[in-house]
Amino acid sequence: MKVAITGASGLIGTALSRSLTTGGHEVLRFVRRPAQDLAEIRWDPSGGHVDTDRLTGVDAVVHLAGAPIGPARWTPAHKRRIRDSRARGTRTLATSLAAMDSPPPRLLSGSAVGYYGATGETAADEQSPAGSGFMADVVVDWESAAEPAERAGISVAYPRSGVVLARSGGLLGTALPMFRLGLGARLGSGKQSMSWISLADEVGALRFLLDHPDLKGPFNLCAPNPVSNAEYTAAVGRAVRRPAVLAVPGFALRAVLGGFADEAALIDQRVLPDRLLKAGYAFEHDDLRAALSDIL
After folding, report:
1. pTM to 2 decimal places
2. For residues 85-94, b (16+ Cβ closer than 10 Å) or e, as one string?
3. Which residues pair with 116 in a beta bridge?
4. Containing domain of residue 124, as a range?
5. Span 56-99, pLDDT tens digits
6. Which of 171, 178, 191, 204 has its CA 20 to 30 A from that of 51?
7. Residue 96: which of 135, 137, 42 has the closest Cα?
8. pLDDT tens, 146-188?
9. What is the DSSP letter of 123?
10. Of 285, 205, 188, 198, whose CA–CA distance to 246 is shortest?
11. For the chain, give me the number of helices (H) and strands (E)?
């Protein structure tokens, strides 16, 4: 299989590329500068250009590119970057693929569980409606931007990723040095639910969707057992054999991070991978403590 990946240098893209190449598949990487070899495809997501000639013969495209959401204060400029990097980049890719005479037959267009907003005690699955808030609105626009590819007959799936746990980056990797110093802390009350997935299962689920092009539409990429932030904090502390009894008050997070605090750090979100399980995907890590043991 020949697979082209946007965001190939990011946490997920790097792991997916490694998994595919190790498995004997060919990986092409989208870059925003002139291509330097045959494994690179130039694109300009904000300018609306993709070198589609390099996509001839590609079996699938995995679209993972997007500006990081944080941790950072959500200024108006940063919120525009978050939205534009997703909606505009996806629209550029989808319209370019749709215009090809023989486009790649499969597109995995990255998305996020932020679609559901705050769910509270009610678990959300793929049948649940969009929530409210900035991130929910962003994800709705993000997924809608891929519609040109769907209309062109391309099989499109929307992997809605939860919090990806890896020692090399993301929420876990960034905070790991603090936990190793015994300074790990729950956020706010710690009661808010967190929908997580190990990097191994994130890659495994993406490969599962690549191997099953008949699976279309949204798929929640998160473990079937969400945990509270307090449970997560305690589990990481146990995994690194350090106490994790501190807490960062919600008001302090809001003062420093603004909207990011309410919609990412403190959001109460329970999301279940209903369609993925029904399709037959078997999670490597469905228990947080076992996942952290393997990761760390």
Report:
1. 0.96
2. bbbbbbbbbb
3. none
4. 2-295
5. 999 999 999 999 998 889 999 999 999 999 999 999 999 999 99
6. 204
7. 42
8. 999 999 999 999 999 999 999 999 999 999 999 999 999 999 9
9. P
10. 188
11. 11, 15
